[in-house]
């Protein structure tokens, strides 16, 4: 019996992925319960199972006291000294009391307790596994839908995708494989409950980590992300290696890397911009694809006052304010956008960041990928032109004419001098 018993424990260990020691402890607890139930004992007992032979024994435990009140739980110091002179008050003495037919009775009584303990051990292991994966991405299969809640099979446990965590307009079909972000793991009476999300900005970060090797190995760092799930997102990236273009690494050859993420997010548009430690430059980058004339940082109010050309105002604000809203979330600054004519009317002078000439050197590095955009013209370098913008909404000729006019207006108002640079402005 003992050999078969140990073999059965080993089989359970392999099948349930539960430690053999946990199973033995559960069986010991079950045997204690069985002993007390079948033999009507109120004693303090301990059951020990030999890990090598599989033999088990029952011990009653008594505390050494000066004078006994209950012989089932206590033993006098005088009696204890007769057993061993080294015993002192409050010591515990064990007496073996294994019944002859205890094995058969215990097997019948302890079965349910053992099964329950195994279930609890399984739930505990699942909880530990997924609680350590909070903030990670998982892949699951859609199982069913109940009251707008989507249940996703993650293998060992079912995860809950609540309505508030579902992307707007996204439908889920039975058997469909989806990726989701683990938001929280709760302990419940029915076992661990895993809460997942398809709208969390963390999902976007984890997807880029999966698709972009440079982010995974730490060469490129994803500094910030803002997202309106199902519509548009912005991420800010930074390269620790000056020879690696962070935006190009995220876009991938012919947009393959970002295309895979857009497909997973059901066509959600993604803006990839460069992060900069200078708040003014970072705000200007975050408003891509709009061009910025100047950014004035007001530290006390945590406000960035941005001036853009008149024809870029609607692009900077975005549909229903979406572009400006995402840029504010991305940078952590409140953004106040004014057109050039409004700035002149209010006599707001450009400060902190001066655009146009120097602006073009880096703002066009920002690449905006949209699913379904038309292919660029024949003269566009297929390898990846850093000065190409899919969302440019004005003709080159009109831009050139506007810049000529803008430069004349700036000279007349003495706003910029020929030697004006960003560094001079920061010193002032």
From TrEMBL:
It holds the Pfam family KH_NusA_2nd. InterPro entries: KH_dom (IPR004087), KH_dom-like_a/b (IPR015946), KH_NusA_2nd (IPR058582), KH_sf_prok-type (IPR009019), NA-bd_OB-fold (IPR012340), NusA_N_sf (IPR036555), S1_domain (IPR003029), TF_NusA (IPR010213). It is found in: Cytoplasm. It comes from the Bacteria. SMART domains: KH, S1. SUPFAM superfamilies: Nucleic acid-binding proteins, Prokaryotic type KH domain (KH-domain type II), Transcription factor NusA, N-terminal domain. GO terms for biological process: DNA-templated transcription termination; transcription antitermination. This is Transcription termination/antitermination protein NusA. Residues 371-428 are annotated as: Disordered. PROSITE patterns: KH_TYPE_1, S1. GO terms for cellular component: cytosol. GO terms for molecular function: DNA-binding transcription factor activity; RNA binding. Its main location: cytoplasm. Residues 413-428 have a biased composition (Basic and acidic residues). Participates in both transcription termination and antitermination. Residues 135-199 form the S1 motif domain. Belongs to the NusA family. The gene is nusA.
């Amino acid at each position: 019996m003992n050999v078969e018993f140990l073999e059965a424990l080993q089989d359970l260990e392999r099948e349930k992925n539960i430690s053999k020691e946990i199973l033995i402890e559960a069986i010991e607890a079950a045997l204690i319960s069985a002993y007390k139930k079948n033999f009507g004992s109120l004693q303090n007992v301990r059951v020990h199972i030999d890990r090598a032979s599989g033999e088990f024994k029952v011990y009653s435990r008594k505390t050494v006291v000066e004078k006994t009140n209950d012989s089932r739980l206590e033993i006098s110091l005088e009696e204890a000294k007769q057993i061993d002179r080294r015993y002192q008050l409050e010591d515990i003495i064990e007496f073996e009391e294994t019944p002859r037919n205890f094995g058969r009775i215990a097997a019948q009584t302890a079965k349910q307790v053992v099964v329950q303990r195994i279930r609890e051990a399984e739930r505990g292991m699942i909880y530990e596994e997924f609680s350590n994966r909070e903030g990670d991405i998982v892949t699951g299969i859609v199982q069913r839908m109940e009251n707008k809640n989507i249940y996703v099979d993650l293998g060992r446990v079912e995860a809950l995708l609540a309505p508030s965590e579902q992307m707007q307009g996204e439908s889920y079909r039975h058997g469909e494989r989806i990726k989701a972000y683990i938001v929280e793991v709760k302990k419940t009476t029915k076992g661990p409950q895993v809460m997942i999300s398809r709208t969390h900005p963390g999902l976007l970060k984890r997807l880029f980590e999966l698709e972009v090797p440079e982010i995974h190995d730490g060469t490129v760092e994803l500094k910030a992300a803002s997202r309106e799930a199902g519509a548009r997102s912005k991420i800010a990236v930074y390269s620790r290696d000056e020879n690696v273009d962070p935006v190009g690494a995220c876009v991938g050859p012919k947009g393959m890397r970002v295309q895979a993420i857009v497909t997973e997010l059901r066509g959600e548009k993604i803006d990839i911009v460069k992060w900069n430690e200078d708040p003014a430059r970072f705000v200007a980058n975050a408003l891509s694809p709009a061009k910025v004339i100047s950014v004035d940082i007001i530290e006390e109010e945590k406000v960035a006052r941005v001036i853009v050309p008149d024809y870029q105002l609607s692009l900077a604000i975005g549909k229903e304010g979406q572009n400006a809203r995402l840029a504010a979330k991305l940078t952590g600054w409140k953004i106040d956008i004014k057109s050039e004519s409004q700035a002149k009317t209010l006599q707001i002078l450009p400060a902190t960041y001066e655009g146009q000439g120097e602006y073009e050197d880096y703002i066009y590095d920002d690449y905006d990928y949209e699913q379904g955009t038309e292919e660029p013209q024949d003269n566009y370098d297929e390898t990846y032109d850093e000065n190409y913008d899919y969302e440019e909404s004005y003709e080159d000729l009109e831009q050139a004419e506007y810049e000529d006019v803008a430069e004349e207006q700036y000279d007349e108002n003495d706003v910029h001098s020929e030697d004006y640079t960003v560094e001079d402005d920061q010193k002032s």
